Amino acid sequence: MNEQEIYEEKVMEWIEDHFIMNEVEVEVEIEDYPFFLHGKLILDKQGESMVVFWCVIYGRVDYRFQDAEGVSYIV
User: Fold this and answer.
1) Taking the model in full, what pTM does it have?
2) 49: left (phi over 0), alpha (psi -120 to 50) or beta
3) Mean predicted confidence (pLDDT) in 42-48
């Protein structure tokens, strides 16, 4: 497995660890989000969204939420 595949896998593992993917009441849609390295846009059925991506600066998976005004921030 090459380095890029490892980062992609780490992002997907983080998503699987933090979301109950098989629960009916937690419906999320995951799309590629190429503005971030290995970015994934996660949308829930209430219209909330977040981006999960590989951060090269810190060498880990990171994420951003979108607030009501459409401004994203790092947690």
Assistant:
1) 0.77
2) beta
3) 83
